[in-house]
């Protein structure tokens, strides 16, 4: 759920369909053709932001209400990550050109890491040092509950100490030995060095000091920075945001969502901007954006999968069509604590019957016009990786409503008036299972995203196939933000536990960081475990993925979740179908759903 805003660990791209595999991305938008942008110059590009997802945050510390992936992309263009992971060079990995660190040396026991900073400077000429990293560390540690990327037990909880060795070296110690790949890609990559000599104060009139070095002081600093970040109209003029480390500086930022970036003349990193000016353009609807493409006023935009029949007309206008694949999965979470259907959902055979009734191949081909791939487990399958198990690859539950019906009738269900009804309650062989009362109808409701033809078509197709199994499937729609607010973790006794299934839309996929661990999604108590799924065996497997250095741990986790079905697996659509001016190249589209304007360039 490309949830641009929800919880830590994932970026739900409530964007055009929004953290990674080691597989290759589609080739970026390269090639010949025109060498000037829609604005008429080779030093400018117009990029279309997803409809109704206007940027609204600039601070390099994200909060739960501001997790739009566009915010992250803009922020990283201004303040480079310590360790940048992206796929803009063709495959996902450490992009050292756009990172402040040059090396990360783990101790032999994997309980600490020493990181080396490059010889880099802030745009005001001051050197970037270990103190700037410590500043971020102190602010986040003291205010972790406000940090959207926080998950209990993970960073910064598992970082027991920070020690500056000198200006360009520092050491972080962990609470135990960890999988180095996971620690680097999923934890250390979240660090965003911030200019301590400018930001370490409690108000506009205050002087910069070492305020952050006490918890109380760090809270005051956070209050100040957080308050300033809420003043969108002041982003371009507030001196606070002028000191940057990235390839771009901010030229303008409107409350309506239009953002203008211009190249940072003082940038001294390896990822220097190729195009001087970048205009990020907001749109209220995808139709308005499509009209802008037709008018030639957008260089890098998108169309819906349902518009692929118009591919030739866009090509005739000087564009290339480039599907943007993502390192993500799509699913419908069950609410295992729902008082009516929770006991049914807790029965593995019932979840198997539901999954057997989902024809993913046909949905991917027909509903998404081939711009989606079936997903049979917790690891993304759109790109090759060493993490996917054979069991997940082979699909343990291929579409068959006949097998689904038999599973239900073998477990005490009888069809009455087209709907399966529990006629043999109990937990023995041939019975419905613990907690499922006699007379319970296999009737479930999904709360689904409104306003999307693609989503509506998929829900209708699911309704039809479920009916063949004898499962009633009722569809209730609401705006995505409303779906999210009504689909949280709950107890059966709470009024908020009325939801049974939830779907955040075909733009609502879970985008992983580089290492696709499921600790926040499927571990007991995980911050993004919406349906309260809990399995002690799975918890052990997930814990092992964060500590074992072998990919086999991830494959065991993949196999277990493909079989146990914690959610209803659904096809994973492309992040977006990009429409790009011919001649714009130099990059691949990042499967982490970020855009990287410094990579873009006009070619001849």
From TrEMBL:
Family of this protein:
Belongs to the bacterial solute-binding protein 5 family.
**Limits of the Solute-binding protein family domain:** 100-527
Compartmental location: Cell envelope
Name of protein: Peptide ABC transporter substrate-binding protein
Q: Does the keyword Transport apply?
A: yes
Q: Which organism is it from?
A: Streptomyces smyrnaeus
* UniProt xrefs under InterPro entries: Peptide/Ni-bd, SBP_5, SBP_5_dom
List the Gene3D superfamilies: Dipeptide-binding Protein, Domain 3, Periplasmic binding protein-like II
According to the entry, what is the taxonomic lineage of the organism?
Answer: Bacteria, Bacillati, Actinomycetota, Actinomycetes, Kitasatosporales
Instruction: Identify the keywords attached in UniProt to this record, alphabetized.
Output: Signal, Transport
Task: Supply the Pfam families for this chain.
Answer: SBP_bac_5
Q: Which superkingdom?
A: Bacteria
